[in-house]
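User: Second chain of the day. Same drill as before.
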Amino acid sequence: MLYSVDSMKYVTTLPHSKDYDNWRNHISDADYDKVVDAINELVDTKEINTAGWMPGSNWDGTVYEPLYYACGKNQTQAGMFFGLIVFKTLMDREDKVWGFGRYGDIKSMTYFVLDNPPPKK
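Assistant: Same format as last time:
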């Protein structure tokens, strides 16, 4: 689950869903699932995660490479797609509540486990 520390509300909808849907239609389920699995593995090991730092800068030969092709070989869009997949993956998880926001000069979203989250209404 995701909780916005800015709005102080749980988030249940994906931003930029039209872009996400467009890019999602250009990647196979198997490749997409590999990305989600990799994200889950990463966030299971740390309580604070910044989306843009998670996949590394060189996606060649990694599970993230198909995102680049799904976005028409546009590196910026591939990064945005990855960020939306992280957002959706954490939003869909029921085991933890993740707060999120943008901090300092960091361009991508930072997520952190909330140890004492507010009750969901």
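The chain has one domain: 2-113.

User: Great, on to the next one.
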